[in-house]
Amino acid sequence: MKGRSPTVAIVLGALLAWCPGVFALDPSLAISQYAHTGWNVREGFSKGVIFTIAQGADGYLWLGTEFGLLRFDGVRNTAWQPPAGEHLPSNDIRSVRVARDGRLWIGTTAGLASWQGGRLTHYPELDGQVIEALLEDRDGTIWVGAWAPTVGRLCTIQSGRTQCYGQDGRLGSGVTSLYEDSGGNLWAGGATGVWRWKPGSPQLYSIPDATNRINALIEDAGGLLIAQNSGITRLKNGKAEAYPFPGLEFKPRRLLRDRDGGLWIGASIDHGLLHRHQGRTDRFTQSDGLSGGAISSLFEDREGNIWVATVDGLDRFRNFAVPTISVKEGLSSSGVSAVLAATDGTVWLGTDYGLNRWRNGQITIYRKRGAPAGSRPNATGSALPDDEVHSLFQDDRGRLWVATHRGVVVLESDRFVPIRSMPEGIVYSIAADGPGSVWISHRDALFHLRQARVVNRIPWSTLGRKDAAAVLLNDPLQGGLWLGFPEGDVVYFRDGQLRASYAAGKELGDGPVHGLKIDPDGTLWAATERGLSRLKDGHAITLSSTRGLPCDTVHWMLEDDAHSVWLYTACGLVRIARSELDAWSADPTRTIRTEVFDSSDGVSNHSFAIGYSPRVARSADGKLWFLPFGGVSVIDPHHLPVNNLPPPVQIEQITADGKTYWRNLSGESPSSPKLPALVRNLSIDYTALSLVAPETVRFRFKLEGQDADWREVVNDRRVEYSNLVPRHYTFRVTASNNSGVWNEDGAVLDFSIAPAYYQTTWFRALAVGTVLSLFWAAHRIRLRVVERHQGEITALNERLMKAQEQERIRIAGELHDGIMQQISALSLMLGTARRQIPPDLDAKAAVGNVQKKLIQVGADVRQLSHGLHPVALKDAGLPDALRAYCDEFSHVRGISLSYDADDSVRDLSRGAALALYRIAQEALGNAAAHGAASHVDVRLTRSDGQVFLSVSDDGQGFEPNRIRASDGLGLINMRERARQLNGTFQLDSEPGRGTTMKVAIPFRRAV
Q1: Number of domains into which the chain is organized
Q2: Can you give the residue range of the structural domain that contains 924?
Q3: Within this chain, do residues 887 and 957 fall inside the same structural domain, yes or no?
Q4: Rounded CA gap, 378 and 310, in Å?
Q5: What is the pTM of this model?
Q6: What are 341-369's pLDDT values in tens digits?
Q7: Does 730 reside within a domain?
């Protein structure tokens, strides 16, 4: 182990220097550290080369291509169409510019046009010219650089007036670039050289290769940079000088100075994109993912994104909240296994190909194999025992402990000293529990070292373990160590014994323990695959996705300088306010609020923990360093990029059944479009113009009259509705950008759907009237049918009752004329026989008794005959007949009776009268026979086309549901008589409260 590992110094610049609230590119980063998104022509993004880019006040990007003009919202592009009947001078677009008044200037290969308010304006003075450059100066004047094979022009357009220069040939074939510097000087690059056109008289400056095409102009440190195919020249104080890029060869075509001072250079051929910042230059080419090798346009939008148009597509570069340092930025390997922030401000990175040190923007690499030529050896001759570094640790003396597969070394005073008593093998974690006392979790055992010498070796089996501890943590309050295991347990070890244990799936979250952290009050936190577990005083609770985490798997936990808690989870980097975590600790049923940084912020998401211990570090400047795949990621909690620009919201078009009825593209759309009747499948396209991370834009929309509440979606820019009813609608949509800043005003569109003729109010009224008329007619017909049917039934019932009455008359006649005559003859014969018997014989008395009984039978038969055929009913009518019967009933039965009858009932038909008469007879008979009544009240009335009969007594009453079958026969007969007449029968009775019978039948006049 002789010789010192070489060092390679790579300047990175200050890593994270964002300004709060400003969302722009960090000039200290290399291009490869920015978020890059590409759209390729081969994948159908556009047709042909994109030559020029501009952005409107509404936020859209305008892309000029060789086949027309595109409008792009960061997600989808739309081909722009001029108003109906109008056209551009050519569809080959070479320059576009959006003026401060919103007018879009369009330069083509055949002339100039502008578009505003749905009107397209042509400028005949420039017909046939290739419009290479467009510029609006600080006074609002539009400058146009035009090229032609013979004589080109430089023109100004102001207040509708066009004035051109160059007809005298001094501009040669024309002007290819325009630029206004911070001093108000207007510069024009033409075929004859560089002109300072204003203020004052135009002045030509000679430059090398003056006849070489001038591709771009940009300001630089009090001078002017001039890009030509031969290179970049700087013009300062009237003198031209070379602007070298040592070690780089390229042909510059486009120049851009971003808002942070970085210089972007778009090259031709395959030289790609260059970025010059803070004294260094880096390059991004097609092999790095650029859409094409040659650059045709550069543009910075209002949110600080850099857009690059190439011959094969479009690229966007933006800041990551969490940039990553990788091999491209100088790391010895992309496989970083541990990160440690030392007390002197340096950051140490253990990789699978050497040890790396970051200090003040420089990376120094320590490794044994493959030392580059020219590296100076270590003065002691010692080196790392192996290039593959596992764990890192800094002790109380500031020494760095480096664990590799071949052993453990200590870096002190710029030399590595091996710990020869440590065996080879994987070291998972290193910790100290006091001055000079170090513990090492080795794959074979737990080693205890004092003064860098092993004093104790404890096999894992001695601790009852089959696996080695993945993480060790010193307990500063009570001494000893906390050990977290891949099998999921956490144990407390002190004085050679296990003092406490928490089991996975019981007290702890289930799965391996990835990290441990202890608070000043002794609270222990364990990062597990099923959440973040809090251990305190023998009790454990676990925070998981059920209480606010975006997912369950937690790789580590760390607190920043502002006491916010950071978790690296399987679905992103999570920031939690300490107050939120404390509130959850007090009430585990509470749901916490979190802030999540995901892949759109530069965070690499993984389901398993990467590397060894430590996996995260907080450097002296407050930045957090942690391990994704492919390098080390860094976040500065004090300077997080925030996009404070609310995204403009636009409603783009309405389509229904495959046809576009309204679109907000050419300005011809009405303020409240009207859709025809019977549209079925309606779609509304909308967008929000936040170009930083459009895939994270959130939308809220609501169709008033259809949606009951707001609906929220992410990056879904179309909503569909089916079978909307004809009416007026209002569609509202709002949106938020990638930082959660909402445009609450959003966009609003009123539209209406016309009704079909059968959906109109008059048609509905007519239909309702027709239906009601039909119902009324049907009802009348039904009433007539029912009345006729009821009449037929009533007539049939009356005929039946008449037939019954005829039968009763016949029976009464038989009883009166037959049986009564025979009974009378027998009575006379018995009287004659009785007189012939001597008075002293017993037979005389016996015959007398028989004669009396026979006379009584005759009286009964006479009464029966009279009941079967009430002669008075036929002669006097129902009121008088019923009165006569009541008088006789009262006399014979000895029961007090009151009777009241309406004389108009006299006209009642004979059948109905007879039925009421019989009902009254039955009711009076029941009152006498069963009710033991002392008084009966009979009422016969007529009202509203009905006849009412009621019989009430003050007898003992009964329970109607307990009537015996034999006793209820009379009630059945009364109810049946009433039903036959389409009437109603009602009986009310209670024990001890008498009985009331009521009958109501329709009045039918006798004929």
Answers
A1: 4
A2: 874-1007
A3: yes
A4: 48
A5: 0.73
A6: 999 999 999 998 889 999 988 899 987 65
A7: yes
